[in-house]
């Protein structure tokens, strides 16, 4: 039986929520007296103690010492998280209404991902990460080429969500600005709207069959190499150091051991993304793993993830199990909406520029 399917009496639900909430804020065991004094329940102390005893038998709370109050177990935290999720479910159209208006040039996707991870970490005070959109699904809007000097050009690859790559590229022969302009028009006329995976595939084949001019084939080969590198980009992680203080407060003798184990786990470029996929199992919206994220080294932590569009990106927050779930989920939803709006609006701006 899951936490969600187990029905608790209304008073026990209230007591459990207050125990978890107070423990998150105070980091100390919660007694029946504290609940009565702070929340003003119209029942006796004996009634609250009996309810707490029942919650303990069900595995929602535990008594760390014989004379202490109770603290939430992982099951208790999961109950609290599911209650918050029930309160915070929003339709996609409602979520987009809270996004601030944003006017900018075509978005640099890599910089946006890094800044988003930094913003989320600082808003929550926890570690944050952003999994980039699946660029192989993005579609080519245009390639920009500008002559910079003899045998050198500046290349910008713009997709439907923004700039995915840019930099200086070598040319096999010196070319005039007119020749580079013609080459750029040929590439854009032929490949605009193709997925970046298809562009990369054509680059490996040295271009479409009708391309006979060597410069176009050469430029496309460079685009393909740059996309190969970009599609393998890493998860952006910020704010790991934010976790040291709460870890030292919770278990000072094991704080650095836990911190080091977590750092190794989430910086594994293959294992961490694989674990994220297993943890979500195709589910939509916010997913919360309370001490059960499927990756060694994360056992003492909760991981909250939330997807964003387009092309299947993912944001997340990592913190000790006794984290402030309400604040983390609120920040995660807001930042995901903001990033989603930036990517979608960049998509629209790229199309408008092309039309002009």
Describe the structure.
The chain has 13 helices and ten strands. The chain is α+β, with helices and mostly antiparallel strands. It folds into three domains: 10-86, Arc Repressor Mutant, subunit A; 101-132 and 235-355, GAF domain (Beta-Lactamase, 2-Layer Sandwich), CATH 3.30.450; 140-231, Heat-inducible transcription repressor hrca homolog, domain 3 (Enolase-like, domain 1), CATH 3.30.390.60. The strands form three sheets. It has a five-stranded antiparallel sheet with strand order 7-3-10-9-8, with helices on both faces. Helix 7 (177-191) packs across helix 9 (214-231). The longest helix is centred in the last third of the chain and has 31 residues, at 325-355. Mean pLDDT is 81; it is low at 89-105.
Q: How would you summarize what this structure contains?
A:
With 356 residues, the protein is α+β, with helices and mostly antiparallel strands. It has helices at 10-26, 32-39, 45-57, 74-88, 92-96, 109-124, 177-191, 196-204, 214-231, 244-250, 255-266, 271-280, 325-355, and strands spanning 61-62, 71-72, 127-131, 140-149, 152-159, 162-170, 236-238, 287-290, 301-308, 313-320. It is 49% helix and 17% strand.
